[in-house]
Amino acid sequence: MLAMANCGIGSVRGYDELVPYKIDVVSETRNYTTWDEVKQSSTIIPARAALNSLHVWLAEHNYTQIYVDQRTPDIVAVTRHNPVTHEKVIMLAYTAFNKNAICYDCPAVEDLTFTGVLDEIVLEIEFSYTDKGRQESEDKIVGLNGAKVEVREHLKGNDSKLAIIKQYETNGKLHLKHFPSGSVIVIKLVKLQLISCE
Prior knowledge:
Layout: E1 31-32, H1 35-39, H2 45-60, E2 65-70, E3 75-81, E4 88-94, E5 112-115, E6 117-129, E7 140-141, E8 147-155, E9 163-167, E10 171-176, E11 184-190
Parallel strand pairs: 1-7
Antiparallel strand pairs: 2-3, 3-4, 4-11, 5-10, 6-8, 6-11, 9-10
């Protein structure tokens, strides 16, 4: 959700590598893994890179207005709006604020209705985790073992694995069909162009 904020964002080293504890920077004696080792492990870094690119793109293209809608206790919709072109980018994110709310399929959630025409699915992120135990290392700080993230970008409306999107003349509807905890879908909407009859 932070990628949709209209301000600077960032995270501390270890978060994107799924280190399951708070790193004490004063007393910790182990080193972080090298970036080559990180690339070979199960992390959320590919998803973070895609979200960071989206964050920069929104800022560069004047999406300065932001609206937030909590759809369920754990699914949140965040809309960024361009006040000049009236284009919108909407993110639906399954956050799982409560660890007991983790779901591997899709909870009951009302369809998201939108005004405008779907331009594209900017981004889909699907996160899954199989508990393979903690990786232990005496000399390196390592994250959880068993995480998998799949990132899909710039899709057509019918290519989504997470949602069914129906487009009508001036509006549309997004129905989540498979949306496990950690999932994200981002859509871009453009304003309907009115045709003059002159």
